[in-house]
Amino acid sequence: MSEASPLLDKASIQQLPPFENLTHQNIVVIENIEQCKNIENELKAAHFLGFDSESKPTFRVGEVSTGPHLIQLATEQKAYLFHVNSFTLKFLQPILSNPKQIKVGFGLKNDKHIFHKKGIELEGCVDLAKGFSHFGFKQQLGVQKAVALLFEQYLAKSKKVGTSNWARKPLTSQQISYAAADAYAALLVFQALRKQKLLPAHIYQTIQTALQA
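Structure (tokenized):
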């Protein structure tokens, strides 16, 4: 799709081939310290990680979210879905707070606040939502439209799954696919923009600072 492509409408996006998500064999659900230790070296060695989080929705007026309830990190080969508890938070803290590791995602504006409440300061995070000015998009783009624009694929985003109970155990297969796709797709979008040298200057600056630190 060229720079001159009109704003992708919902109907057009839905006609595209489906997004090629990771297989379930390459999506790992993590909830205890032993599982964390098994992936520690792999995650800490990654310069770039797809990142997202999910919270159980609130429905009553004045109800305060206790999220995040699920944290997603993705490499180009695997996605890791962390049920939030004291063990997983302790494990993730040095990764999420490490300015030398770039975590990329969409719509991360709220995340710094909710993670701060959990005692984690997010550093090295890049929000890709405003990274498409080169294509003529002045407004923020979500991951679904970004995938359609760059890969001409349809990343299905079920509202029912998106607003489901992310604190439940076990997660449903639909929740697992949805959560993994958000982090994995964000990483692929980032890598594609970086390869084509189309990332905005402020994102390049963040990356350069991290890699030189």
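The mean pLDDT is 91. The chain is about 40% helix and 15% strand.
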